[in-house]
User: Fold this.
Amino acid sequence: MTDEDLAAMLEPTASVSISDEKPVADSRIATLKAAGNELLGKGDTTGAVGAYREAIALLGDDNAHPDAGALHSNLAQALLKMNLPEEALAAAEACVGTKPDWHKAHYRKGDALFALRRFEEALAAYKASLKLSATATHEVSRAVKLAEEALKGGVFFKQLLPGRDIAVSPNSQEEGLVFGAAAQMKNLIYLVGDLTSRECYVVDACWDPQGIAAVAASHKMTLVGAIASHYHFDHTGGAIPPPFVAMVYGPMGKPNARLPGLHEMGRHHGAKLYCHSLERERLAKQCELRLDELLPLEQGSKLPLGAAGMALEILHTPGHSGGSICIQVSASGPRSYGVYTQSVLTGDTVFPGSCGRLDLPDSDKSAMYDSLQRLRELDDSVAVYPGHAYSGERSTVGQEKKQGLLRAFGKQQWLSMHG
Assistant:
């Protein structure tokens, strides 16, 4: 056989390989992109990252490929979900290099920079995205606002009302019953944190932990702790006392009924759980938690808010229950009764014009009087945020001294008022 004959035999095979190489690669890239998107939608971020990276490797230096920008963008998003902001930034910068005029490329870069707490650079990236955006202006404008707030710093504060802010879109008939009861109970739930560190606590997480976590995430905040103002089920979740089961599930009730709350915040959302030491054992049983999962709080305990001098200070205010607490937002330094602060979250100790129930088996009228007298020592300008919206969502210490139960009266008068 001559060399010419051998060449003639090999030529068709070589020709097919060269001509088919790009279509085969393009098909594989499209398949990997679709697989990555499906995995990301299912929450399998590790699988999604693997699929996107394999597709990007097939791209090589072909930055003009129609899928190049989307692949780098989706990879950045998946890496952020895995809490890998440095790698996400590299993917986002590759996206910007591939499609410099695409608003989403700059938005992804902004998200990665925000996660790295490089707020000034994040703001610049978001503004570049906003300038290029034609349809996503609301989402990008919100990101711009969050970056500006982070640069300014201060206290992050969000009041949540079931039926308005959370517990609004049930995924099942049973959850619909729970959400309906939540709206009826008018519990108020709070997110409090630091705008610079982007860490926050939730106070009285109940009814819709997933919704609470979603609100925190939408503000680019990380939930680090969940604080119970007291053990009652509508503030903590867990086992529902028999008188209230019918309120949630109807006359037929439900065996072993329990509400989502602290259990889910700790096990599913990674928050540290806090309550007064007097109620730890009871809450552990009620919420199906180990005792060591509930960190004890005492009078004067402080939980840092991130920035130097900012903290949440615990005020033990027994009365509605033996371990009831109020949570005081301190602007700077160690705090105690009688020192100016920004606000106090009162749970079921103080409502606008009234206080929590005192006819429960473990409530104490005398202890409630003493607790209210100590709260009178707070500055009149301190904002009061109650645990229910029965008579309003906000007041001040000064207002409650005039028209509420922080008025000046003697203990015998108080006891006579409450039988």
User: Anything to note?
Assistant: The CA atoms of residues 230 and 324 lie 5 Å apart.
